[in-house]
């Protein structure tokens, strides 16, 4: 469901290269990646609320990356739990009424001098109230805390709250690089090559796996401006959206394509099927997602797309039962991506379809999703030590474009003591080599790589 700018973008070209080198080309044709769209004018979306920066100082990278080596290595963490779906028999109008009563998201918690003096004890002492507030509000923005200015303090914070780390839902897919593996901390999208890319609202989830909670931390804000962290309440978006559109999307359901492979449309059918079979057999199993390889669903001749299974755009929260907009169309709809800054190669561009007909979402429907979503965005001025603690089933997140260098990171968490929800799987070690190889390839990209800007 939620693939933060298409983690398949490197794996599928690799698979087709393997096919090409095996001699399975036609008339010397190569599998070139090309864009068949001329993008409209790109404008960065706005936000409903934009807090002021406070310009609080941080630590040097050498300091903030220090791990407490006296603590155990967490690299054997839990697998991300399976997605909890409770989306049947939803009365849309009643669901909107319920969602409209939800408290404001995010809740802002600002550190006092005495709070900072307490360090991790502040979080241990207030654990029950903070965990209750997280479920109530969907996200908590901790501002001005000195403890979380470094890796070691960030871990102290989430351990004091007794949050149990797990792998990213897309850990096995690549583009999921650890900041500190032993501290269960992933690097966010800080790559300079993608600083000109606007990341729309999404939850870190697929139809198959969804983390329960997340803790996004700022170690260094963008040195030359921008890079606000975006958060929006899925309940507020649900209440805001046009009722007829919600009823239509709920009835028809949606499917999301997570990558494109453009091959010459003149290739014989048996060659196309060979490519499809190779990608399906050699690549898809390496990704812990339910994908179907489909040709030309977005109307582009010769395009092979990896498409997730049908899902509801509305879900009930697993704990509270609150109906929420649980959907990534704001991030993945092509008609929205083509109208805002985007630094993703064509191979990694996503699309959203009505599941019953596999037509792409209309521009009118995309614009209503954009309007309702962006009305409820808070564009956070996160500074060193700030953490956004997120209920991943309630709040959606994203990131604005930035200039210069930036360092944010995130830890994902599974369910607490509910073993049925948490599952019993540990880290899928056999997939980690692919993850590291893809990240190494991405690190080769030049700082100003913007292949999709033209």
Automatic annotation (TrEMBL):
Signal peptide: 1-18
Keywords: Oxidoreductase, Signal
Residue runs in coiled coils: none
Residue intervals of the TauD/TfdA-like domain: 124-408
Keyword Membrane in annotation: no
InterPro entries: AlphaKG_dependent_hydroxylases, TauD-like_sf, TauD/TfdA-like
Pfam family, one: TauD
Gene Ontology molecular-function annotations: oxidoreductase activity
Protein name stated in the entry: TauD/TfdA-like domain-containing protein
Organism of provenance: Cylindrotheca closterium
